[in-house]
Amino acid sequence: MPFGNANLFYNASLDRLERDAISDTPEGYPDLTDLGVKLSTVEERLPWELAPFDAYGYYQYEDVNEKPVPILPQMVTMQEERAINVQRSNLPLSLLPIPAM
Fold this sequence. Notes:
Layout: H1 14-22, H2 42-50, H3 78-89
């Protein structure tokens, strides 16, 4: 029967958690503020971090013709599928384009 943290996921246990929490107190080592890191609150950082996700959130098209038209997928014929499978089977040569039929 193994003892200690040998069979635990990344040595995660309550004992390890307690030791890490106790050792978080600085013992003469520089703190983040000593290293020049400017601390900020979540309220200060949140608008800056979320701005890229909200960039076009309220965009409305003025005309129907402005909307992008998606390209519809086309079914592959049996001959095209076989040609693709043959090309994939030739691994080093599969990087070359398929000749037109």
